Amino acid sequence: MPPIRPLNDITVVELGQVVAGPFATMTLGDLGAEVIKIEPPGRGDLARSVEPAPEYFDTVNRNKRSVALDLKSESGQAVALDLLAEADAFVENTKPGRIDTFGLDLESVRAVNPEIVYCTITGFGAESPYENVPAFDMIIQAMSGIMALTGREGEAPLWSGLPSGDLAASMYAIQSVIAALYAREAGEIDGEYVEVPMLDAAISWLCSRAAYTFRHDEPRPRTERHTGMAPFGPFECADGRIVVAAGTDPLWQELCTVIDRPDLAADDRFGSIADRLESRPALIDELDATFAEASRERWLDRLHDRQVPAAPIYDTKEVWEDEHVLQRGLRTAMSRTDAPDADVIASPARFERLTSDCRDPPPELGGDTDAVLTDLGYDEAAIDRLRSEGAVE
Fold first, then answer.
1. Which residues belong to the active site?
2. Domain closes at, from 273, 298, 316
């Protein structure tokens, strides 16, 4: 039986850069959508020049076709509108005001395709006091509270390392586009406009972390340990760190059994969750001293045998050597003609009947320009003329 991709009949045009827009459209492409990525001639998506190149670009741009268009030219804008006239969805995350100068604002696109789902990912959104402020992930992490949550107590806030602001907006863009397409298919709407501000998306991900402030009217402490349960955090073993999440009373008792410390189980300082939180410095000292007596592998084997939640702390090299990651095939190489294989991270979704897959490797800049324009009905002479004008590459 051939693979069934749920978005197989959907065409998405992307005018994206770096992570927010490209990750969203890549995910739609994994689900079967044909994604046509518009890039500026010469340099392409900014992600192509971010180190490590091309690996940075590759991780968020599989399952796409690249068309190099000069959107500063009238001819390039006309080609883009022809593409959008045939598309089901448009996802863009350009700088504030840039989409208007390209002639691809909502009104112009709707004039050629009133049924399109138009999704714009912005830093702050229209009519925000920061509407015209350029936004990168670190800006969003700083303003959303994510940076203030990341790091150790008493030390400076840290960028989380993950592009959390980009990815939060990407995930809302994905679900919003699919929801709008579903509503259109059901006949409830003709087309739709979706705005996803990165700041709003990142703030929504505070969720339970905001609960501390809602309750106490104070900033949630910056800590590498859970503020409401203990022991719940990292501990030092003889050869590395692990995390243990034994925050409930039954798990605490199991942990004491595993590490052969009945004295801790009977210690009044650690009798309840509230007691353990109040006596956390002493608790951490006791547990660090015990865990330091053996390797993390030995402790993890024993903890897992007794169903105590625990895990190694991997770096971004170690993670690919884990047996689960290997079994799931989460790191995969996509072969390319005349270029090294592209290392990508496979979709985590596993369907029973549907398919989400890595089909096409990340494209070369403008590698599909001629083919896409031919599909639109441009003949060879028209494409040559556009190329001579510098409108396409």
1. 166
2. 316
